[in-house]
Design brief:
The structure is a single chain. The strands form two sheets. A six-stranded antiparallel β-sheet has the order 1-2-3-9-4-7, with no helix packed on it. The chain has a three-stranded antiparallel β-sheet with strand order 6-5-8, with no helix packed on it. The chain has two domains: 6-51, no CATH class; 64-164, Jelly Rolls (Sandwich). The chain has helices at residues 6-13, 17-24, 32-40, 46-51; strands at residues 68-69, 75-79, 90-96, 112-119, 121-126, 129-134, 138-142, 147-150, 157-164. The chain has 168 residues and is an alpha+beta fold. Strand 1 (68-69) and strand 2 form a beta hairpin. It contains four helices and nine strands.
Length: 168
């Protein structure tokens, strides 16, 4: 559930790897004291453990009204699954009003990003290259390259994009 190996959990919890193995195989029931140590290695509160609903799956569908807008000004960035823990990627539904700009200072961050222009046009600068992309055009680049999005046109631009690892 938390992506830890038995050895890593044992090390964090200050118990033996054998104990973790026996608990995992359901061959031993740990004492409350041992269980607390193991949960501290995750970390998880004892109360959370006893009320944990493993059958409850994270949401799969996200109505438009529930998407968090993490953009500012004329740039709307609607993040899919904003409340999900340990997301491996960020998916955005982006809208750029006429005159919108991600800023004079070029953006850089770890990872990669890509997207498809759904409607309108956008000027995208990546590294030393600048292009105007229209509906149906796409992009994909390493996010460590300086980049900037600008809508220099009269119509709103709409993009669906993804980046990994997520930066929001």
């Amino acid at each position: 559930m938390y992506g830890l190996s038995q050895r890593e959990l044992a090390k964090r919890a200050g118990v033996t790897n054998g104990l973790i193995s026996l608990i995992e195989q359901n061959r031993v029931s740990p004492s409350v004291s041992s269980l607390k140590k193991v949960l501290d290695g995750v970390p998880m509160a004892l109360a959370d453990f006893f009320t944990l609903d493993l059958a409850r799956q994270p949401p799969v569908f996200f109505p438009k009204e529930e998407l968090a807008n993490i953009g500012t000004g004329k740039v709307a960035l609607y993040l899919v699954g904003a409340g999900l823990a340990r997301r491996g990627m960020a998916i955005l539904h982006e809208t750029y009003e006429p005159g919108a700009d991600t800023g004079e200072e070029m953006l850089t961050h770890n990872g990669e990003e890509g997207g498809v222009v759904v409607k309108g046009r956008i000027e995208l600068s990546v590294g030393g290259d600048t292009r105007t992309l229209g509906a149906g055009d796409a992009y994909y680049f390493r996010s460590t390259l300086p980049h900037r999005f600008r809508n220099l046109f009269r119509d709103e631009c709409e993009i669906v994009s993804a980046s990994a690892p997520p930066t929001f």
